[in-house]
Amino acid sequence: MQRNLELIMQVETVSLDTVMNVEKYLEPGEIISLMFLLNEPCEKTLEILIAYQRASKIEGNTSNILLNWAIETSKKESWKWLFVDALLTCQLNSVIKKMGIDIRGLKKHILLNQQDYIDPIKKHIYKICENINNNLYIKIKRILYENNDFLLDDHESCEIVFLKLMCKKIFTISSEDLKLEVNVNKLVNVLDQIQELRELSIEMKYLATVNINPSKALCDTPKTSCKQKESTEKNEDTKLHIDDFDETFTLLNQIWIEDINLKLKCD
Predict the structure, then answer these.
(1) Model pTM?
(2) Which CATH number fits domain 120-221: 2.60.40, 2.120.10, 1.10.533, 1.10.390?
(3) Are 126 and 37 in contact (CB under 8 A)?
(4) What's the rounded mean pLDDT across residues 169-196?
(5) Which one, of 94, 95, 123, lies nearest residue 110 by Cα?
(6) Residues 160, 53 contacting (CB under 8 angstroms)
């Protein structure tokens, strides 16, 4: 409980100034990834990122699109958690450390409590982007053109490509105003045609099923994902128990020392 309170206090120290300072040290590609995860709706995000990508190629990282997002979103109670969740998803651990946030505690909070502040499908699409190299990008470009008559630019980031696909309704992930809409069939069909991305395709289908019908999560989990999850949970449980014992022994030692000091004073 104490650690949870410490983590909450750490995250609550995040401010607009924090976001502004973080943005100064990030690469344009990292900012594009963060904005893909954070900003909605997809049409607005696409417009912002296309303009940003063009400008960053000429001027470098001189824009404040992350800060603008934070200003617009700061009315939401969860905006600080959204921000740190996005940083964690993009594996920007050094940034999180500089912000004074316990990474291990943050991972436990999000993974063990299944507390996703960002849509899990969006996170998975980011994961797909991280696994797409130039050769796979060419394959995706060819398949999309042949199957959907959709032509991609050679120099666009993967996140921008997926935003374009969402805007064209080739696939949809939307939970605005609690009106859930998930349709990733066409995207899955594209991924299924590329051997290197088939495992990610299976995970995508599973996530879409869980989003639509959460009760199917227990019976339809892919075997590979299930084993990985069980292993992770066991490891995390072990770490948690060790941590609990460490905290208990520390507390007992403090009580023992205080008791000795009290007796010495009495004597």
Answers:
(1) 0.77
(2) 1.10.533
(3) yes
(4) 78
(5) 123
(6) yes
